[in-house]
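Supplementary Methods S3. Input chains for the assembly prediction are listed below.
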Amino acid sequence: MSLPQFAYAAPKTLEEALALLAQHRGDARVMAGGTDLLLKMERRKLAPAVLIGLKRIDELRYIRFEPEQGLFIGALARLSDVVEDAIIRAKYPAIAHAASRTATVQIRNMGTVAGNLCNSSPCADNAPTLIARGAKVELVGAQARSRWLDLEKFFTGPGATALAPDEIMRQIHVPCPPGGSAAAYQNISARSKVDISAVSVGVHLTRRDGKCHDARIVLGAVAPVPMRAREAEALLVGTGMDEDVMRASGEMAAREARPISDVRASSEWRREMVAVLTRRALRQAWDSIASAHGGIVNR
Amino acid sequence: MKQIIRLTVNGDVYEVAAHPWRTLNDVLREDIHLTGTKKGCGDGDCGACTVLLDGRAVASCLTLAIEAEGFEIVTVEGLAASREKLHPIQQSFVDEGAIQCGYCTPGMELAALHLLSKNSDPTEEEIRAGLSGNLCRCTGYTKIVSAIKEAARRLRADRPA
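Predicted structure tokens for the full assembly:
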């Protein structure tokens, strides 16, 4: 790796980092794990004059669960922290699973979930499940200005987000899982487990009185940004989620997807895989609600 | 402008003057002359550059040297306790014939150390998952997997129950 030259700053507080970002407006980038940013710099797609390393900001390094409010993932929580976190594994297993399907051991020990989102690759492994779970992200700017945004609205295009040039993502919030609900993540690549996802699907289902009460289906890598398959969702609500319904929903999701052909896969294959993975994710989520029957109470 | 960077590598402290855009891989190899850590793809995909930072396997080619300050860095040179006695992971690689050209070996061994520190008795599937970030173009992985199984057995035997 041969990187372009830059000045490096390692602030110890978020406030300092925001001040630096405002001071070098447009000319600075913040970096958490660096696994995406440094590659873009090596390829000269980015050449910031100032690199602001966030790693020394201890206040951003946390994973916290509040029984009333839900899960908070700080900007410096690494993918491996999320994979290994006992509470996430117990209460949000699909989120842990999506993190475990991101890149390799080494990259998961370096990269962060927030960074995976801020990089805004259409195939970011952590986006579909988090969107399906109703996650919000907190963006903070100079003078401690803070705003919360639905993660669904955060992505504006490949590599582009709603982050203003002077803002930093402070944390990700995921609400408490509603009673009788479950999420699932399915992804596939043309080669191996460590390859970048060619298609991914995150779903979230809520069951009430044996029927599907709420459904969210989020597709990754088949549109410029992760997208909801709303018509496929609508087919599920009010049904008993039998095999035919799940199949029809998967096929509808495939019609809603807008995949391109690229080095990783053809658009035709991607569309077919959307149908397959959607059906599998729906089955997995629905079955895990059933197997937890009676075990989940409203929180 | 060059900055003084203090790195703790295999228990020894090194002070180097380096530009902030230098990677840990480059500083280890070119400034500290610990060339056991290899440079493969340079993109964090192949694992040849793997080192441990506070016990966790990372890609040194994607790590800025300046950001490795304050961590305990372990490279392949830090595995063996002495010149005479290899680390059980290294000895198992030799005994099982898990080395051909040797280029991936330092990264493989450190990824194995990270894996075994979290899981003292991994299944074959867990070993393969633990090595999924390390590419070998010679051996086809079979012998590497047996070497790590054997290393796990030896490490468990060394450790009083």
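Chain B has a mean pLDDT of 96. Residues 121 and 152 of chain B are 6 Å apart (CA to CA).
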